[in-house]
Amino acid sequence: MNTVASSRLAAQCSVCGTLLSGAMSVVFRAFGIKRSPRNPNICTRCSTHVEEGRLVEITVLFADLSSFTELTQDLGPEKTHEVVDAFLRMATDVLVKHGAFIDKYIGDAVMALFNVPIRYEDHARRAIVAAGELESALQSLSARFGLSLQASVGIATGYARVGRLGSEDNKDYTAIGDVVNLAARLQGKAGSGEILIGAESYAKHAAEFPEATSEQVRLKGFREPVTAYRLRGKGDHRPADEAPETATRERTSIGAIIFGILGAPCAIATLIGPLAVAFGAGGLFGLGAALVFLDQSVVRVPILVLITLAALANLYTVWHARKLRAEAKVGDHLKMMTMLEKRRTLFVLSASLVTLGIVAFEIVAHIRMH
């Protein structure tokens, strides 16, 4: 369910820089690369692989329509579907705007993850701010349907293992860990229009939400009482730092297009893809054919130009891959290259440099002959 207003969407993938809007995005869509339905500010190939199978710190948010079961008895199935659909669309809009990854919809509830796959230092704050804005947005939704709609929200921060679960034919990307259970239980204890925040989430940004009240709550499945902070949703619109909207003002570059096409199906886990390797091999062997069989042909020069451009594109891909690994939004465990990545990188680099060297030699030789 991707309903976020286009004006709020990033022009490029927030992880790898692939173009997601504009005329050139058509090129990527031809390669099957488009916006992720879980978070439209990242591309489909970065969507579920950045932290695949890793234990990472995340903030989990559960939001559920309060007392909606009672309302459904009066609304009927058609009206119920319309209201729930509108709520989930609105919630998706608000949460994604603050950097959330929509994990799943459960009836009239939504589960969202912060800090995967896009990493944010203030992921707990983003979740709290998004929850406040969600409560505020429900006011306009209530007016639209003539109902009194409110949501209960639970937020928790902790470590979880993220990855895909299920059968080979139907796998679902999600998070597993106590933090998920804690967020769900906190949501169950939150009243209508309330946000119940776990101690670890609140401690990170306590000074920004002094109105929250501390309490000890007993939660099913937890042996000891849990410290939580209860906050009334007041539509806090304080902007989150580095919000996705700022990405729409980024200048797209030809480099992003080159890397988007030559990068691997997972732009982070494997940065040098098979297409880049094919370009390297094709350029090198194509150069040999151009020199041996097309020595006097009129197409010799255009072929040399194309091969040179392909070699330069590959060199850029290697450089951009190295740059991506150095950025903070990529986890430390992904900065170490696998043996396959090292071999691919070495081959692409060597083939490109040898190709450029031969082309340069041919140019010098041609000048001397004339």
Question: How would you describe this structure to a colleague?
Answer:
A hairpin with a 4-residue loop joins β4 and β5. 45% of the residues lie in helices and 17% in strands. The protein has helices at residues 25-30, 44-47, 68-97, 123-145, 178-189, 199-203, 254-262, 274-292, 300-326, 339-369; strands spanning 54-65, 101-106, 109-114, 151-166, 171-176, 194-198, 213-217, 226-232. The protein is α+β, with helices and mostly antiparallel strands and 370 residues long. It is elongated. The model is unreliable at 1-7, 235-251 and 264-271 (pLDDT under 50). The chain folds into 2 domains: 51-235, Nucleotide cyclase, GGDEF domain (Alpha-Beta Plaits), CATH 3.30.70; 253-369, no CATH class. It is built from 10 helices and 8 strands. α3 (68-97) packs across α4 (123-145), α8 runs antiparallel to α9 (300-326) and α8 (274-292) runs parallel beside α10. Strands 1, 2, 3, 4, 5, 6, 7 and 8 form an 8-stranded mixed sheet that branches.
Topology-level CATH name of the largest domain: Alpha-Beta Plaits
The backbone outline, from C-alpha atoms, is: elongated
Spans of at least 5 consecutive residues with low confidence: 1-7, 235-251, 264-271
What is the makeup of the main sheet? 8 strands, mixed
State which percent range the strand residues make up.
15-25%
Name given to the CATH architecture of the largest domain: 2-Layer Sandwich
As a whole number of angstroms, the C-alpha radius of gyration is 26 Å
Secondary-structure element pattern, one letter each:
HHEHEEHEEHEHEEHHHH
Identify the CATH homologous superfamily of the largest domain: Nucleotide cyclase, GGDEF domain
CATH class division of the largest domain: Alpha Beta
**Number of DSSP strands?**
8
Helicity range:
40-55%
Overall residue-averaged pLDDT value: 75
